[in-house]
Amino acid sequence: MKSYLSILLFAAGVLVAGLRISPVAAQEHHAALVITPLVGNFYVYTTWGMTGGTPFPANGLYLVTAEGVVVIDSPWDTTQFQPLLDSIAQRHHRPVVLCIATHFHEDRTAALDFFRLKGIKTYTSRQTDMLCQANGQHRAQFLFDKDTVFTVGGYSIRTFYPGEGHTRDNIVVWFDRDRILYGGCLVKSTEATDLGNVKDGNPAAYAATIRRVQRKFPNPAYVIPGHQSWAGVQSLQHTLEMAQSAGSR
Ligand SMILES: [Zn+2]
């Protein structure tokens, strides 16, 4: 067993050295677009973008209703905008009618123009829109000024701005009926070892922001982070603890 393990580790080391990618990425053989059923009519979709020369996954969510499909956040991979729409049409025979982006970074907003041109109603908060404009990112067609409940096909889709964290504009989205908390990049996966990119955010405020999410939605059945695994609901607490160890109160 021990020698088997060391052979594996050696092989992983060779892969890392040869391809200069992380062991996790080396083990993953995935399509450019991966759609994973979550529960009921909810699906997590994942595309990959490059960070420092390494492919890194980004999660979005979609909900299939009788009145059409609601997509939370853009694919990060700009080659996957049409494939996402095609996959949804093939699987569910419904058009995408609404897209809400949860902050201004491109892993959330890259497809906003593309989606608008396809007749999809695109939304962000006004705060996100101002940051999109200031940072040259794609912008939504429609804006909301405060926390908003969208109702589509009998589902309530609730946006909530808990305060600054990953970015100054990050929102989360809550789905009442299935108690799904879509955390976006504010919530770090239990796989994450630190808060990641907070250069546009507020590390000092991070912990208080996460506690506001926990108070508002105390009993989620699922928590979806912007990146990496969404297994378990401990990601919120994990994010809080990482924020606290980074000095946030
Ligand atoms: Zn992100």
SSE topology string = HHEEEEHEHHEHEEEEEHEH
What is the level-2 CATH architecture name of the largest domain?
4-Layer Sandwich
Question: What is the helix fraction of residues, given as a range?
Answer: 25-40%
* Mean of pLDDT: 91
The general outline is globular
CATH class of the largest domain: Alpha Beta
Proportion of strand residues = 25-35%
* CATH level-3 fold name of the largest domain: Metallo-beta-lactamase, Chain A
- Main sheet overview: 7 strands, mixed
Q: Order of strands across the biggest sheet?
A: 1-2-3-4-5-6-7
Please give the alpha-carbon distance between the first and last residues. 45 Å
**CATH fourth-tier homologous superfamily of the largest domain:** Ribonuclease Z/Hydroxyacylglutathione hydrolase-like
Radius of gyration: 18 Å
Q: What's the number of domains?
A: 2
Strands, count: 12
Bound molecules: zinc ion
